[in-house]
Amino acid sequence: MAAPLDFYFDFSSPYGYLAAQRIDALAARHGRAVDWHPMLLGVAFKQTGAMPLTEVPLKGEYSKRDFDRTARYHGIGGFRMPSRFPIPSQAPGRLVTWLKSTEPARAVPVAKALYHAYFVSDRDISAPDVAADVAAEAGLPRAAARAAMDDAAVKDAFRREVETALARGVFGSPFVFVDGEPFWGFDRFEQIDRWLVTGGF
Amino acid sequence: MAAPLDFYFDFSSPYGYLAAQRIDALAARHGRAVDWHPMLLGVAFKQTGAMPLTEVPLKGEYSKRDFDRTARYHGIGGFRMPSRFPIPSQAPGRLVTWLKSTEPARAVPVAKALYHAYFVSDRDISAPDVAADVAAEAGLPRAAARAAMDDAAVKDAFRREVETALARGVFGSPFVFVDGEPFWGFDRFEQIDRWLVTGGF
Questions:
Q1: Does residue B1 surpass a pLDDT of 80?
Q2: What pLDDT, on a 0 to 100 scale, did the predictor assign at position A171?
Q3: I need a labelling partner for A176 at 20 to 30 A (CA). Which of A75, A201, B105, B164 fits?
């Protein structure tokens, strides 16, 4: 089996959420797996000078319309902008980082549950207690999940993941590498699809 | 015939160039015309705080790769990043504004010739003399074209076009309105295509 796709996303990113609904199926069509990497857009924004999309004059209003329209275009039901947006996403990022090293088979289902909690159920997953609730609903021991988010070693591992992302040139969410080729944005999924067929174009 | 699409673009915008290769055919498939509106990204950037894409850390390197890859993906041959980039695009913007009011049938062919001169032939169309050469090659009287770019009334008309664009919420290039619905980016052309079929989704 060829190398997995590297899928970078921020839990506070609407386009990341939409991409998360499609990335596994896209990769599977080409016999590929996906390595899910939570990251922190805020850290990337310090380098690029960007700010949260919805806070940019002119672009902010447009982006909110585009999130909804793009979800509808792709038939992704249930999406709605959360009451609190954006959120710091350290807690869910740490939780998934912890799972990747302890119970890797649970990492993606829990990541999807966290994204769903935020962008469909409007739950503030930036709160470690809420993130732990979501993990428990997904079948994890709640106390262990809650403790992981305060664990210095987990925090450190997530920090290194974010640093690695930046070192690879990740500046937005979603961001996907296919055999080293970088693709930024859910709207590059069609290029990814062709790249997976042709090995480049 | 239904209302034309409003197509906003900056002559210095690579994605605007790529969009310009497709917008007329896209609209025509749905029985629509296109109203071409040159604008100035620099003026919009003052409001959004954005800077030229290629100058942004991390994003800049990616964007140059993406311009080329997106051209190849869409089978748009000949595209190459100009030696000088970005450029101030007042001269070609004024030229097209002048044509729209004096010889509207020549405006789009000349706009396409200007874009081709910059993104295929690597000619610096920010220079009024070069823009006038391109207009002359496209069949316009060179002296009149050259004079138009220095005409205060033409400058004023272009300034008003740019102000109107901003007032409508245009913050990037390309930017298209379909019956009032805003679409930013060449990568929204598929949504535009469906919107033109369904009248909304």
A1: no
A2: 95
A3: A75
Residues of B in contact with A187 (CB under 8 A): 185, 187-188
Picking from A8, A5, A17, A3, the residue whose alpha carbon sits closest to that of residue A162 is A8
B101 pLDDT higher than 70: yes
Strand A175-178 to A181-184 pairing: antiparallel
How far apart are the CA of B43 and the nearest CA of chain A, in angstroms?
Answer: 12
Mutation test of the interface with chain A: which of B59, B175, B181, B201, choosing the one with the most A Cβ atoms within 10 A?
B59
pLDDT classification of B50: cutoffs 50, 70, 90: confident
**CA–CA dist B125, B38 (Å, integer):** 14
Residue A171: its chain B contacts at CB < 8 A? Answer: 56-59, 62
Identify the CA nearest to A131 among candidates A18, A38, A5, A24: A38
Q: What count of other Cβ atoms lies within 10 Å of the Cβ of residue B59?
A: 22
Show the beta-strand stretches assigned E in B10-81: 34-38
Asked if the bond preceding A174 is cis, omega within 30° of 0, the reply is: yes
What interface predicted TM-score (ipTM) does this complex get? 0.94
Q: Distance from B70 to chain A by nearest Cα, in Å?
A: 8
User: Does B11 score more than 70 pLDDT?
Assistant: yes
> Could you tell me which chain B residue has the CA closest to the CA of A69?
B201
Which of 131-190 (A) contact B at CB < 8 A? 166, 169-172, 182, 184-185, 187-188, 190
